[in-house]
Design the sequence.
């Protein structure tokens, strides 16, 4: 039986662990040729089937090279899923270290922009592509004691809306998803107080599962998603406010 992504090449940033790894696994299972872009060189080395690039997404020149190298190795880039991200510290905005703020914005927002910017020319050239940016419900609601994370994810939503409109007259679709908390290795970067607060805000009463997010992302990455672009797709257990 043919897979949904047979003949397609998919790039997943942050594809070694967490949500990114779950998405990458599902894409590969449904036929995609996979390229994983991640800083975790040891984690990348464990993949014996995917094309891999050791990459710091905050380096725009390195991102450009990664896109070119991936297209050269695999033929093109059909799908981009931007899952690389960090949480940053949990503290009030007035105490938030400027260096920590800059790092969160660099990884979560600028990194997404650099990756989107680098792959769009390949997608425009073939008049086909799917970009799915991983944002967060925090980008809609604004989590207390997580101002940098919330601001960065709000920026990803804005970027997605703009880029989706800019490419609407092409065969390229750009959307993002806004998960509530999903239990991943990122939890190790948070305080227990922050984790408990996030759970208390989810009406369904549990954290999301990686495979639930992956299922939504795979639809957005598929040819089935043809009339949605610049969209923001909620997967928050009822938490979303708009």
Sequence:
């Amino acid at each position: 039986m043919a897979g949904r992504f047979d003949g397609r090449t998919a790039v997943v940033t942050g594809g070694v662990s967490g949500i990114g790894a779950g998405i990458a696994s599902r894409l590969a299972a449904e036929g995609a040729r996979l390229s994983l872009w991640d800083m975790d060189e040891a984690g990348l080395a464990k993949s014996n089937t995917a094309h891999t690039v050791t990459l710091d997404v905050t380096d725009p020149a390195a991102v450009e090279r990664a896109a070119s190298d991936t297209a050269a190795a695999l033929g093109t880039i059909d799908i981009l899923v931007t899952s690389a991200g960090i949480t940053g510290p949990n503290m009030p905005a007035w105490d938030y270290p400027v260096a920590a703020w800059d790092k969160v914005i660099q990884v979560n927002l600028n990194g997404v922009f650099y990756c989107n910017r680098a792959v769009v020319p390949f997608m425009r050239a073939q008049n086909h592509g799917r970009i799915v940016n991983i944002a967060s419900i925090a980008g809609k609601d604004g989590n207390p004691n997580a101002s940098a994370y919330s601001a960065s994810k709000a920026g990803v939503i804005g970027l997605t809306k703009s880029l989706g409109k800019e490419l609407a007259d092409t065969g390229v679709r750009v959307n993002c998803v806004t998960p509530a908390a999903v239990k991943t290795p990122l939890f190790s970067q948070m305080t227990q107080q922050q984790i408990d607060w996030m759970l208390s805000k989810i009406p369904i009463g549990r954290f999301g599962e990686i495979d639930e997010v992956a299922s939504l992302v795979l639809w957005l990455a598929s040819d089935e998603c043809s009339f949605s672009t610049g969209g923001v797709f909620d997967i928050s257990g009822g938490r979303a406010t708009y």
Q: What stands out?
A: Residues 98-126 form the longest helix (29 residues). The helical segments are 18-29, 41-45, 60-74, 98-126, 138-141, 147-166, 192-200, 210-220.
